[in-house]
Structures are given as structure tokens and as C-alpha cells.
Amino acid sequence: MTLKALAARFALVVSCGLMMATPAMAQFWQCAPYAREISGIDIHGNANTWWGQAAGRYERGHAPKVGAVLAFQSTRRMRVGHVAMVSKVVSDREVLLTHANWSRPGAVEHDVRAIDVSAAGDWSEVKVWYGPTGGLGTSSYPTNGFIYSGRAPVVEAAPVVDTTIIATAAAVSVIPVAGE
Predict the structure, then answer these.
(1) Which DSSP letter does residue 107 get?
(2) 11 CA to centre of own chain
(3) Are 84 and 98 in contact (CB under 8 A)?
(4) How many CB atoms lie within 10 A of CB 68?
(5) Model-level pTM?
(6) CA-to-CA distance for 36 and 84, rounded, in angstroms?
(7) Is 70:78 a contact under the CB 8 Å cutoff?
(8) Cys staple from 72: which of 34, 51, 82, 130, with CB 3.0 to 4.6 Å?
């Protein structure tokens, strides 16, 4: 193998390594710990247990409010449910959610669209924006309702996973060696 071929392989390996690097401040978030962090609702365990655990501890209801956590039920595709915090109420049937681990594993998404598609208008079934398709898609998800925290949300407190990959080419200098 020539020195140039070896240098080219080295540059390729270094470039691939840089593409896989994760920033030191990045964190892989599950939905429940992230919702707890930003909403102040001190419930632990899988997301599908939050609604039951909130009974008697937090107010619950079917009207969206900023800072409330929307508790999703378990489904075949979401076995442990999901929780997401309401960051803005757009209308009685549309909100913006801030949540983790939805469109990309471990990633945080801010202000994504969710709409109430329930027949009764009670937020018992929703569609949520999904990054890879860039829209609401065709799937709808059953929910239990909203858990109200009673305090202002703290979205800035939790670090966000940077899902942007920056590829950098490694500069390799080929220095001729005597005899080549």
C-alpha cells in the first residue's frame, strides 16, 4: 500500500469519526424525564403511568394550558406511552408541544404542532407533527388528558440534543519519504 493510499484511508476514517461525534453538552432524553424537568411535574416512571400517578397530586383535565403535560396512552407502537408539555395554546383544538424522543431517538423538539382529532373535542385523540415526514401524517394517538403543573414551564433548563451532523474533512499532508 502506498503512502498516498494509506493517507487517504486515514482521512476517510477520521472524517467518519468526526461525523459520529456527539457534542459534550448533548444528552439523550427520554420523554418522561424531559417532561418532568421542564414542567415541574414530579412524577417518575413510564409515561403511561403518569395519568394514574397524577390523581390526587395534580389537577387533571381535558383543556390545554401552557405548562400542562399531555399524557398519551400506551399503544402497540408506543408501549410505554408518551408525555409532552404544552408550550403554546394556538386554539381550543391546536397546541404546540415541547417534548423528547418523538421524531428522533433522544432528541428534543420545541413547539411542534399537535391537533385534537377526537370526535368529542376533548383531546382524547391527537395527531402530532413528525419530523421525518414534515407533517402530521396519518397516525393518531389516544391520550388521557392534561396534567396541570401549577407553575411556569422551564424549557431552557434542559440541554437540547443537536441533531445536525457536521461533516469535516481531515486535512492530511503527504510528505514524500526518501526512496519513493
Answers:
(1) -
(2) 33
(3) yes
(4) 26
(5) 0.72
(6) 10
(7) no
(8) 82
172: exposed, middle or buried (Cβ count in 10 Å: 0-12, 13-18, 19+): middle
Nearest to 162 by CA among 110, 111, 107: 107
φ, ψ at 93 (rounded to 5°): -125, 10
User: Which cell goes with 113?
Assistant: 404542532
74: DSSP letter: P
Cβ–Cβ contacts within 10 Å for residue 57, how many? 11
Would you say how long the chain is, in residues?
Answer: 180
CA–CA gap between residue 21 and residue 18 (Å, rounded): 5
CA-closest candidate to residue 108, choices 45, 37, 53 = 37
Q: How many CB atoms lie within 10 A of CB 34?
A: 23
Alpha-carbon distances of 124 from 70, 71, 76, 108, 113, rounded to whole Å: 10, 10, 17, 24, 16
Digit-by-digit pLDDT tens for the chain (180 residues) are 677 776 667 555 555 554 444 444 468 999 999 999 999 999 999 999 999 999 999 999 999 999 999 999 999 999 999 999 999 999 999 999 999 999 999 999 999 999 999 999 999 999 999 999 999 978 999 999 999 997 766 655 444 444 433 333 333 333 444 444
**Coarse DSSP helix, strand, coil percentages of the chain, rounded to the nearest 5 percent:** 25, 25, 50
